[in-house]
């Protein structure tokens, strides 16, 4: 369960930043220049930050009955690592084409 949720949170963070939060997309209008850059980075412009935030807030909600802080840290790290893997795959595909 830990690994699958870590991967899922990483995929969700990447999709949110790289697709859904771009201008013209469903969440593109929400975080325009109304907020300071540090807030925009963790909610819109940094896929690593968004994946970590998703894992930070959703993992305790998912495991509230048997919460473990070590598992929480591992899920956050795995979600960020998943984003790195996705970016590496994307870079390899765009470089070859």
Brief summary:
With 97 residues, the protein is mainly α.
Hey, roughly how much beta strand do the residues contain?
under 5%
- Overall geometry: globular
- Number of domains as seen in the coordinates: 1
Number of strands: 0
Helix content: over 70%
Helix segment tally: 4
* Span of the ends, CA to CA: 36 Å
Which segments are poorly predicted (pLDDT under 50) over 5 or more consecutive residues?
Answer: none
Q: Which structural category fits the helices and strands?
A: mainly alpha
Rg, Cα atoms, Å: 14 Å
Biggest sheet layout = none
Mean pLDDT: 88
Order of helices and strands: HHHH
Task: Please characterize this protein's 3D structure.
There is one protein chain. The protein is mainly α and 97 residues long. The protein has one domain. It is built from 4 helices and no strands. The longest helix is centred in the C-terminal third of the chain and has 28 residues.
Give me the secondary-structure topology.
Layout: H1 2-20, H2 37-45, H3 47-62, H4 69-96
Helix pairs in contact: 1-3, 1-4, 2-3, 3-4
Based on the model shown, name its key terms:
mainly alpha; 74% helix; 4 helices; 97 residues
